[in-house]
Specification:
The complex is a heterodimer. Chain A is of the alpha/beta class. The two termini of chain A are about 50 Å apart. Classes of the chains: A alpha/beta, B alpha/beta.
Chain lengths: ~450, ~180
């Protein structure tokens, strides 16, 4: 026996308790007894038992009521009910209330052995299932969040600490930084991971469409609504709802959303029945919600309701040391999906990439690598495969000062803010570099 | 190897002398200790349950424990009646785990109870296994998962036939540690 199964016997008859106690002890189980339901519930509150074997007919609280209360305390508890007065009604009721099985006293020794063996098998299967799920999750949860930089380590740490809670999260960051990946990582590390993560791109939908999308609608709610439709909040029951581009929702939707977040209930469009849903909300935006609150375009109460935890995903230019890792990851990803042998990247091309300011962040880098694999020679990505010049033009850099600031920041990041090495690379002396850092207000990334 | 404890087999039923001697010999071989045989006198009607038409094994075990068991020996009461405990329809025997006493009955071990031709040799074999099994419990051994080990739980006579009358290596090691 891999794990010692624990059994709690609940029966008002001492002879029954003693007989079962001796029987199970000889089988090597850990056994405890309670003479009534009240005592049993007190024991269960303090100690977890794998199997509860309970008599239905007991003075005070009966076995069926105790079964319901045990299920409230521990929904997966295995409770076997026993009775001397077998009726189909009580058996059906016990099973409906979640009993694992039902046995009539006195038992055939073989029936009892089978019953406990089945229950033990169920326990070990449940545990095995849980362990396997854990393994799958630990392999998959943050695999797409690539980066060894300090800023990414901080983001991963924040994900880890926030995942287990039910708090609302606002993920901020520029477009293309991977906010949705962060939301997925939070969900897949949370207790809700075996329920859906429902994503809604608020910016892509008009107000009426968003309303129907979030709350669902009843048949006939509007022209063309031929059937009832479940909303995203309903679909996210026990799971997580991810509201991307939250800053784009209208004032009316902000009020509706606030009400749903407070009551965890809503009514479908065109309906009148209140629907309950237990979901966790994660939002993302590339805008500054705080300043939107200040200028009145975003409700303050909704902001505080959503922004319990804030995770800021840094732009790629603030973690250039992650670029080689990301390049390697995207090369493998696209070679695999295009069914091509794995290729490499020329050192000069990689160097240029690390010096490049990616206004479109990781998404831009990913597209660049995908394009390079498609147009390249199939062996090595070279400088000419990368549309760096074009992107440079389309970047936000306008003045010569902007260009100098970005270049100095990239070099400093590349040499981990080692001033001497950065100055050597820039071919200036250390004092000049210090002056430039001061002029542009550059600071090491936190 | 020498045990500090002896084993006492007390007969409360109608057993042939040769039958009991054979059981005692098998016990001696398994536990490496002196085995004494005694005849016990007991009014079994006190333990009879007219509703179930069986004998209350729990009460019989307590009676053996209170009146026959000593700290110097493991005592097994041998019966020829149909035993039950309140929660189970029947038992072949039972014992106090790591205790001083146990009981065993050959009533349900006989082929005759199952409409099959009597087989005295098989009955004796089953009874030896049952007595050794209950004695194992008194020495603190719990049920074993090895199919041939005498400590494997058996709820049907066919289960008893599947196992041997000796301990598996793990139970043997555990028993030796206790006997030493």
């Amino acid at each position: 026996m891999a794990k010692k199964i624990s059994i709690l016997i609940v029966d008002d008859e001492v002879s029954v308790r003693d007989s079962l106690y001796n029987w199970f002890i000889e089988d090597g189980y850990h056994v405890a007894c309670a003479e009534n339901a009240k005592t049993a519930l007190l024991i269960i509150e303090n100690e977890a038992f794998d199997i509860v074997l309970a008599d239905i007919k007991m003075p005070g609280m009966d076995g069926l009521e105790m079964l319901r209360r045990i299920k409230l305390l521990k929904s997966d508890a295995i409770v076997i009910v026993m009775t001397a007065f077998a009726t189909v009604d009580t058996a059906v009721q016990a099973l409906k209330d979640g009993a694992f099985d039902y046995i009539t006293k006195p038992f055939d020794p073989d029936d009892l052995s089978h019953l406990i063996r089945n229950a033990s098998r169920q326990i070990s299967l449940t545990e095995e299932n849980e362990n396997l799920k854990q393994k799958v999750v630990s392999l998959e949860n943050v695999a797409d969040l690539i980066g060894n930089s300090e800023v990414m380590k901080r983001v991963l740490k924040e994900i880890e600490s926030v995942a287990q809670s039910n708090s609302s999260v606002v993920i901020t960051g520029e477009s293309g930084t991977g906010k949705e990946l962060v939301a997925r990582a939070i969900h897949s590390n949370s207790n809700r991971r075996f329920f859906p993560l429902v994503s809604v791109h608020c910016g892509a939908l008009s107000e009426s469409l968003l309303e129907s999308e979030l709350f669902g609608h009843e048949k006939g709610a509007f022209t063309g609504a031929m059937y009832n439709r479940k909303g995203r909040f309903e679909m996210a029951d026990n799971g997580t709802i991810f509201l991307d581009e939250i800053a784009t929702i209208s004032t009316k939707m902000q009020i509706d959303l606030l009400r749903v977040l407070e009551s965890k209930s809503f009514v479908r469009v065109g309906g009148n029945k209140e629907i309950l849903s237990d979901f966790r909300v994660i939002c993302a935006t590339n805008r500054d919600l705080k300043s939107m609150v200040e200028n009145g375009s975003f409700r303050e109460d909704l902001f505080y309701r959503l922004n319990v935890v804030n995770i800021n995903v840094p732009p790629l230019r603030e973690r250039t040391e992650d670029i080689p890792l990301l390049v390697d990851y995207f090369i493998k990803k696209y070679c695999l999906s295009m069914n091509r042998p794995a290729i490499t990247i020329e050192q000069s091309a990689l160097s240029r990439l690390t010096e490049f300011s990616f206004p479109g962040n990781v998404r831009e880098l990913e597209n660049m690598i995908e394009r390079a694999i498609v147009v390249g020679n199939g062996r090595k990505i070279t400088l000419k495969d990368l549309p760096l010049e074009k992107s440079m033009i389309s970047s936000s850099i306008e003045s010569l000062d902007d260009l100098e600031k970005t270049h100095i920041r990239n070099i400093l990041n590349k040499y981990a803010w080692n001033i001497s090495r950065a100055a050597r690379a820039l071919k200036v002396d250390r004092v000049t570099l210090y002056n430039k850092i001061s002029k542009y207000g550059l600071k090491p990334s936190e | 190897m020498k045990s500090r404890q002896n084993i006492a087999l007390i007969s409360f039923g109608y057993f042939d002398n040769g039958f009991l001697k054979d059981v005692a010999e098998a016990v001696k071989n398994e536990f490496y200790c002196e085995v004494s045989m005694k005849e016990g006198h007991l009014d079994l009607s006190e333990f009879y349950d007219p509703v179930r038409r069986q004998y209350n094994g729990s009460r019989l075990l307590c009676h053996v424990e209170e009146n026959f068991a000593t700290d110097l020996s493991k005592t097994i009461g041998l019966f020829s009646v149909d035993l039950f405990i309140p929660i189970l329809t029947y038992i072949f025997g039972q014992a106090f785990l790591n205790g001083r006493s146990g009981i065993a009955s050959d009533y349900r071990l006989s082929n005759v109870r199952y409409g099959i031709t009597a087989d005295e040799k098989l009955l004796l074999e089953r009874f030896r296994k049952e007595v050794i099994h209950e004695l194992g419990h008194t020495f603190g051994l719990i049920h074993c998962h090895v199919p041939t080990c005498v400590m494997r739980s058996g709820t049907y006579v066919e289960d008893i036939d599947q196992k041997e009358e000796s301990f598996c290596s793990a139970c043997r090691v555990a028993l030796n540690a206790i006997l030493d």
